[in-house]
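hey so i finally got around to running the thing on that chain from the lab meeting. sorry it took forever, my laptop kept dying and i had to restart like 3 times. anyway pasting the input first so we r on the same page abt which one it is
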Amino acid sequence: MATYSSAGVDVKKVKGIHVAINDAIFSSLPDYVLPIKGHYAGLFRTGNQTLAIHTDGVGTKTLVADQLGKYDTVGIDCVAMSANDIICVGAKPLVFVDTILLAKEDDRLVMEIMKGLQEGARQALCAIVGGETAIMPDMIKGGRKPFDLSGAMVGVVEGEPITGGKMKVGDAIVGLESSGIHSNGYTLARRVLDVKAWGKEMLEPTRIYAKPVLEMISKCEVHGLAHITGGAYSKLRRIGDYAKVGFLLDNMPKATGVMAELEKKMASDYEFYRTFNAGIGMCVACPKKDAAKVMGIASSHGIGAKVIGGIVEGSDVILEKDGKRISLL
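ok and heres what got predicted. didnt touch it at all, straight out
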């Protein structure tokens, strides 16, 4: 049975690297940078505005695109990974720049990638204002048309940033349905899934939550937002640390489609829920009284949503499944 570490990714070690990086960069910062450490975006002030910035990539999902010879959707993933992160601090996406690394000059490949980037920007309500294209044959190798894709996004926060600090014991956690694997866990997914059988589902673009989440923020009392990406539900600690609370996930959806196939391949529930989104791409923490309204907004945008758990005392992230309680940290 499969584990992420057996595929070459040790999430706990990665977390340690993140801590070391944050300690280094936050040891000395100018006063226009907000001291919000280890969150989904960096925050800084310019004039009377608070801006958020984030950078991310598509990871090894690019290898799936190359295996299938389909390159016009991974750009959506690239935009999604930054957009979904900056909205977690309450930022509205403004502008995006991309970096495309190629093994050789290939204008057709670049234009296919650009189709996805432009569609992603449309969904995220932002503009692509520039980027970088580099030819690096000594580093970008293998496959039909090897490439790497990443980007960076800036957004504006109207009012105070959402850090999770307002979460309270008893708040509901509303899970917004994912469109599939999204853009994390592919180093393992590619090892355990047959791309010939599951390629279409594996390449399904990451859902972009900008429109519904910004509407939720404007119409509901949103206490915290967590994008479920690398490390999956352990990501909830990013917002939990600000309120010194824990999380109980006791009503997770049943895995279907490609997620059900991945669940069957995993060594344990811990490995599955610590590696993959399990059908939920974004978590919204809100008072119980607002949960129905949050779910209604999601539904109006064509996104399934349900209460998957709640905020509890402590500092753990607990999955309750089949009578077992499993720490996901």
